[in-house]
Amino acid sequence: MNQTIEPPSTGPSEVDSRTLREYLAEALVSSVFQNSEARLEAEARFTQFAEKLVLAIDEARRVFTPLLEKALPIIQKLVETDWAAVFDEHEKAFLYIADCGWTPPNYIGIGELFTLHLKSPEELDRYFVEGFMANDAENLKILGETLKGNPELSQWHPLIDEIIASIRAGHHRVAIPTTLTIMEGYLTSALVKVPLTTAKNVSPFKVLEKAKWHEANTLDAMFWKAGVIFLSRIFANSDFTQQPPTFINRHWILHGRAPVDWTLSDALRLVNSLTTLVFLFVTVGQPKLEAPKWRGEGKTSVAHHG
Prior knowledge:
Blueprint: H1 17-32, H2 36-80, H3 83-99, H4 110-116, H5 121-148, H6 157-168, H7 172-193, H8 204-211, H9 219-234, H10 250-254, H11 264-284
C-alpha cells in the first residue's frame, strides 16, 4: 500500500474521461480494491465521475474563456496604470474644489469629480446649486436625511429640519448661522470623543489643525486635507476692524459683524460641508501613518508580476 501515485502526464487541455478512467483504474482502484467485483464496480463509478468532471471542465472553459479574453485587456490596463499619477490628479481635483469653497457631495461620481477642476469658482457655484436644487431639491432633502441619520447629530435634528425647509422655501440666509452653530458643536463633540480636546475648548478647528491628520501621506489624509482647506476659510481669524472677508466666516457671522449678503450657494456649501465633516469623523477617521505602497512608485509592468 506504499505505492507512489504519480499524476497523469497529460496536460489540462488534453484531459478526457478515458485518461482519467485508465489512471484511476491502474493507479488507484487496483491498489485499494483487491476483489475483482468490487474493483469493477469502483471502475464504473470512477468512470462516471470522470465523464461528469470532463463535461464540467469543458463547460467552464466554454463559459470563462470568452470572459477572460475580454478581461485581459482591462487587466493589462489596470496593471500598467500609473496609480500614483491617478491619485495625484484625484487629489488636485479634491483640493481645487475645497479651495473654491466646496466639498464633493455624495451625488457626484469619481469621473464627474475629475472634470470639476476645469470649472471656475463661479461655474462651480452654479453647478452645485443646480445639482442640489433640481427636482424639487431632491439632493438637498437627501442631504438633510443623511445628517439626521447620524445619532451624533440627534440634538440638532429640529434645526436640521428647519435648515432644509428654509433653503427650499427661499430663505437661505436663515440657514447660514444655524448651520455654523451645528458645525462648531459637532466638531467640538467629535474632537472630545477622539479624544483631542475637552468640552471647554472654544477653538475646535485649531485643535484639528494641530492634530495634522491632513498632512499624512495617505488616501484618508487626502479627504481630511480637502476638509481642512474648506474649514480653514470658515474658521479663519479676521480682525473686526478690517474689511469683512469675502468668504463666509464663522467669527464675523456668529458675532453679528458680517453683512447679510449671503447667497444660496453659501447656504448649500455650508450644509454640504457639515455632511462632509460627519463623513470624515465617522467613516474616514484618523488617517493611518503610513502611505499605501503604490503611492509614488510609478508604473508597474506585467513583467514584474511574471
